[in-house]
Amino acid sequence: MIERNTSKAHAELDLATAATLFDAEMSDKKLSGELITSAFDLYSVETLRDRHKLRVGDTFPTDVFVFGKGEPDDPACTKVGGRPFWPDDMEWPNASTGSPCRFLAQFNFGDSMDIIDADLPGTILLLLTENEDDWLWGDDGLTFHWVSAAATPRRDLNVLSAVGSAGPFYGVRYRSADYPAAGDATYELDVSQGYNLPILNGTKIGGLPHFIQSGDDSPGQFLCQLGSIQAAPYAPFPWSNHRDALDLQFNDKGIYGDDNCAVFGDMGSVYLFVDDDGNVSRSFECY
């Protein structure tokens, strides 16, 4: 296994073990910059950073996540879809229509407080939607709810997922860094998607946002990024807890299967910011 269980909020990726496996089984595969979902995506990015000496200039630590599939052992960890971590003494919110909100994702900041320069109202931030389809584009389509990781979670909570049948996916943490000063150097490289090398692109806490378009003027400090989820094909451990590789089919054996991907627009990302009062705002960009 490439997951390393710890006493922290998240399992951690054992990238050294994963790298040994990929070096042995994927040596003929050309590496490229990647939107990070699988361990191989992160391995590819970090290997190219080392190979081309891109760890230069100011360093911005970030906790980036690769994903396991299924419900995690710890319901409080960072995850997308599935069963949310919700206190048993709180009612689940309703949408303006009166129907229950859908659960999109949650971020657990417990392992990342050393890289977040903000006083957060809680340890876990839940992202809820009013419906499955329109939340990306409407200003009021996404709501944010802070809860304490010390709360007793509701075990009987059964709510709809904003990513449909996909997942659920849980985050396996890896501490890395963003290197914005390496941006110019990547234009000279013969590397596909080299723009994904300086600032990590994927689901992350802290560091810098990997803007896809022109960026954003949202108020407050960058908090985290929710990236589209699409596993690396033909690589072992497309999910950190599943060794068998996925192919390019549109079924449960392929990366395009409904259960295996959660894509926002055209491979887009949601960016979250927090102000001094703990209020969260968001923006969205895609290709």
List the helices and strands and how they pair.
Elements: E1 3-4, E2 12-13, H1 15-25, E3 35-36, H2 39-51, E4 60-69, E5 79-80, E6 102-108, E7 124-129, E8 142-147, E9 169-178, H3 183-186, E10 201-202, E11 204-206, E12 221-227, E13 229-230, E14 261-262, E15 269-274, E16 280-285
Helix pairs in contact: 1-2
Protein name: DUF1963 domain-containing protein
InterPro entries: DUF1963, YwqG-like_sf
Q: Can you summarize this structure?
A:
With 287 residues, the chain is mainly beta.
Task: Summarize the structure in words.
- It contains 3 helices and 16 strands.
- By secondary structure, the protein is mainly β.
- It has one domain: YwqG-like (Hypothetical protein YwqG fold).
- The strands form 4 sheets. Strands 8-7-6-5-9-4-11-12-15-16 form a 10-stranded antiparallel beta sheet. It has a two-stranded antiparallel ribbon with strand order 1-2. Strands 3-10 form a two-stranded parallel sheet.
- A hairpin with a 7-residue loop joins strand 1 and strand 2.
- The longest helix is centred in the first third of the chain and has 13 residues.
- The radius of gyration is 18 Å and the shape is globular.
- The model has no long low-confidence stretch (mean pLDDT 94).
- This is DUF1963 domain-containing protein.
